Amino acid sequence: MPTGPVFTRVKGWWHASLVLHMQRKVLVAVAIMVVAVVAVGIALFLGVGGVEERVMGQPKVIKVGVILPLTGRLAETGEDLKRGIEFAVYQINSMGGVKNCGGAKIVVVWGDSQARPERGAAEAERLIVEEHVVALVGAYQSAVTKTASEVAERYRVPFLNPDSTSPTLTERGYKWFFRITPHDGMFVKQQVEFVNWLNKRCGGCIKRIAIIHEDSEWGTNVARLWEKEFSAAGYEIVDVISYHAPTVTSFDAEVERLKRSKPDLLLVASYVHDALLLMKTIKAKKLYVKAILAQDAGFVSPAYVSQVGDAGWFVFSREVFNWDLVQKMPRLKEVEEEYRRMYGVSLNGNSARDYTGMWVLYYALEEACKIVKPWEDLQKFREALRDALANLYIPGDKLIMPWKGVKFDEKGQNILGQGIIVQMMEDGKYYTVYPPEYATREPVFPMPSWEERSR
Asked: How confident is the model at residue 88 (pLDDT cuts 50, 70, 90)?
């Protein structure tokens, strides 16, 4: 029997069964294409749940929205935070993705707040409505986190906050907001303990305290807490100075005012550029205090550390993480080495918290995927994810942070976190000095005078 096309003659015309054969092939191909298009359409439709099904060999993904200040005055900090997020996602996906969702990979959809609260809110809405993310992560500045999380609460989307510390964020009665970092109320209590500890070492030489702070949601709340807690501990608050970080160009008047108030301890809440300007002005005008204690933020940014020079020596800062913790926490070694290979810098308090935040979200995603898959029902998955976060417990030995673990209270605050105190030494690096169980150096206190430093 012939296997090739058979030609026949009908009414003087040559017709080939090849034509019919090819027509059938075309019809079959068209049918296959129709089915494929329908399948893709269905998959994309289901993909509004934050996951795209495996189509044409492409792996399914879970989309997570991350809002950070990627441009604007805090862009350097934003890039630092972004590295922490990217590193965690790289590790998670390399280890097989979200296993209870069939190995779905996490894909980050970035939102740029530009360091502006209104922009953060707009990005939150875009990520939820247009990108159909399963959750939001961010947004560093407390003022931006406030507006962005308001949007998430309205849309009933989980908002995981690794890095904003204003206590008011967890006092709003929200059900969809979860914060892993300790807040400033927790940090300030530890700072009072630290100053009391220092004071015992010098026979009570710290009595008078001055405060200088940027005037956003974060800085204002920090200053109020400092006033309240240090006054209650018996210290005299001799001056409180505020300034507007986005527009400040000089600290000459403020530093002269501080010289007149003669504090023993100066407490500072600043972002990167204002922290640099303030410290250089303090050096230029030779303001001397026994100690300067900063509230993290700009003082621990790589941009600040690389530029401040000797103006930043011997300044204490509240932190949540430091490179030298590897000496006290051996489990950090492999993570720190891999991070340095990828980015050429060490993890710091910003990148480490956002790295930890993505891992916390991953553990919650695994739990939520046991209940419902996001491509089956987006909102039910978000609800399952919210419940998973609310009931999550991660022991401290699973984290790179010097915390007892992660467990959220009814307000969405992690109750197992704590801070550390670091001090910049003469090599330009911060070393952990408190609490004693994590300390790698003894604190230099009181600070050497400017004259002593120049000898």
From this structure: very high
C-alpha gyration radius of the chain: 28
Q: Is 330 exposed, middle or buried (0-12, 13-18, 19+ CB in 10 A)?
A: exposed
- Using CA of residue 85, residue 90, residue 95, residue 101, what is the dihedral sign? positive
Helix (H, G, I), strand (E, B) or coil at 136: strand
CB 151 within 8 A of CB 170: no
State which fold the 61-182+328-407 domain adopts: Rossmann fold (3.40.50)
Q: Quick: pLDDT tens for 177-203.
A: 999 999 989 999 999 999 999 999 999
The domain spans of the chain are: 16-49, 61-182+328-407, 185-319+425-453
Q: 78: closest CA among 30, 110, 119, 118?
A: 110
Whether residue 139 is preceded by a cis peptide bond, meaning omega within 30 degrees of 0, is yes
List, for residues 367-408, the tens digit of each pLDDT value. 999 999 999 999 999 999 999 999 999 999 999 999 999 999
- For the segment(s) 185-319+425-453, the CATH number from 3.40.50.11030, 3.30.360.10, 3.40.50.2300, 3.40.50.300 is 3.40.50.2300
pLDDT tens, position by position, 276-302: 999 999 999 999 999 999 998 889 888
10 Å Cβ neighbour count for 245?
A: 25
Whole-angstrom distance, CA of residue 107 vs CA of residue 104 = 9
d(CA 295, CA 184): 9
Using DSSP, state whether 451 is helix, strand or coil: helix
Give the pair of three-digit tokens for residue 176: 């969809």
